[in-house]
Design goal:
Length: 766
Amino acid sequence: MKAGLVTFYHLHHYGAILQAAATQRALATLGWECETIDYFVGQDIRILKPPTTPARAANDAYNTLHYPALKRRWQRFEDFSRANLNRTARRYESREELERARLPFDLLIAGSDQIWNPTIFPDGRFDPVFFGAFSPLRKIAYAPSFGVGHLPEGMEEELNGYLAGFSHLSVRESSGRDIVREAAGREAEVVLDPTLLPSAAEWSALAAERTVAGDYILCYCISRSGALEPYIRRLAEETGLPVVQLCGTRRKLHPKAKLIFDAGPAEFLSLFQNAAYVCTNSFHGTVFSVQFQRPFFTAVAPAELQDPERSRTFSLLSRLGLTDRVVGKGDAATLLDVPDWAGAGERLSAARAGAMAYLKAALADEPWEKGKEAPAREAGPLLADRTCCTGCSACAAVCPRDAIALVRDGEGFAFPAVDPEKCVHCGICTSTCPVLRPREPKPLPAAFAAWNKEADVRRDSTSGGAFSALADYVLEGGGVVFGAALDARQHLRHIACFRKEDLWRLRGAKYVQSDLEGVFREVKKCLETRQVLFSGTPCQVDGLYRYLGTRPENLTTCDLVCHGVPSPGVWEDMARYIERKRGRELQTVRFRNKVEGWKNSHFTAVYDDGTVDTHPLFETEYGRAFGRALFLRPCCYRCPYASLNRPGDFTLGDLWGLRPDELPEQQQKGVSLLLVNTPHASHVFDQLPLVRRPFPVERAIAGNPRLASPTARPADRPAFFAAYALEPFDQVVRKFCALPPLPVRAAGKVLSPEMKARVKKVLKRE
């Protein structure tokens, strides 16, 4: 039996040619002859191309400089292709040519790589050839990729038509499975990339002789190294090994790196096979690190960190239990940790067997029944994924066996850790987790501009002092107020306040996530005998309600308009950094002091000797990084509470966006935005000694965009946390948090947004 393979292969990319060779070898092991259809889709693979643009001219200048080595590389790709790919005798350059051809195949197989990615073709549409649309033969798919998380609008019907001719569908990533399901209503199996089907020994047989003597650190980056930079540098320092850079990106990744320009596919395999360590941001770089069991670190795009279920690298590494090798996140392995190769090898063998079983069934046109892919292991309780977990502590508080503790990760955030010796798998934590339970919609809240009548309280508050009025009301009724306060070491945790005299500790914004250990249980105990006011972020308020399982009549809650919660670990390191710079200990900190008025907030530090530093917040290192959302909790960038569907009775924030002619006498002193979200809140609100003015909800959203959408994730967040994991904190601050040079700041004030975007685009180019 003979199959015709439609895939990318002629591009001089390592992954493209190796996946094509791997697919042919997999079919051969199943008794099928396979020919790759020599379909040339028009990409220009010449080393030197006509300099039609300045960028192309710069590219040619670079290639001319390294032309002898690049020519050897070009020839090695051609030689490898001839030696290891069985191709049709004729090259085809269009669908029409293929329709006229008499191809000697029993079926067609749409192979791997991004052959189903419409955005890479000149017209932005699918290429029908890669769906076998030129032939009436039966078709199967093995691991093609769409290369995008979602199809461009209006292409679902077209895709559905192309997929109709396939008897068996599989894809390389879970995002592809979702696309197929949405467009065609069919289930596609997620299978291994073809390069993982042959064994390491089979790949070794295709590798060139050792190209670099001795041990070395191999760096292979196809884009900016970003979060990998500190790993490359520290690995070289810790091990003393030389750095070898396989040139995908033009930027030199280490000052002493040996650059390799002339590696073909066989040399590529050899470099990975013999490396002592690998640092890469290439998917196939990750694949061959796994194949040859080389200790490796890999970086992925920021969007993939935020949405790992749509990442091909995460898809692979999660199957193998190796997601800790992805840098720039809190659970990344430490520098010299050895991967669990035994466990990964076991999982890879099982996944490989499952993929080959799928391929065998597809070739034979037999029904496919998925079997168990990995050995059964004891599973812990279902809790929120790390990218979604808010750290609200509800799961730990509700556990009847105290089997869950909140433990800080490498980013300084607390995540639930389950003690398997204590856990009895009762499922209470799963049923309590707010992230795993949908929230019911609520009516739109009523919005008000509000401020406290007491001038001293208002001056000591971040905005208008509305929180203090609410807290006073509860305390006067014999109740207790829970809010966030800094201790002597600048650790922020929720505390209980029973007296008005102590309320100052809870006033003011604190730009860090607070510690809730034991607090929910304390709230529950207080509710047995008195009124309680709980103030916190929306996720903390929702976590409290989920823990309690009800909304007690004597509980009042106040959630905050939240930009996102910064890392407690980063803040505490920043506090120590400030103390080292000043040579004295911090006594207290005001993140937003109204020393120059409400609209010019200052970061004020008071030291143990009575001295005071105060600077505009966004001119300080911490304030600048906070404003850029550099070290917020991962869930903040996809926050489900960034809407008007608020969990608290009240929502408090600053009433930004006031026009100069609106409340002009109040703007310097601070004005609160107060949302009344529930009937209970409406009752309490009527009794508060506040000056209040109704305010349009639409205007409230315009001034507080976090009432409509989450904070955007900055592109350099992974690089920040990669450096944070490995470098001295002072060095991290200088690199990521310092103000830009004066000329850059001046340009920022003069340039238009469009010009700024252009400059950024140029600076990002390799």
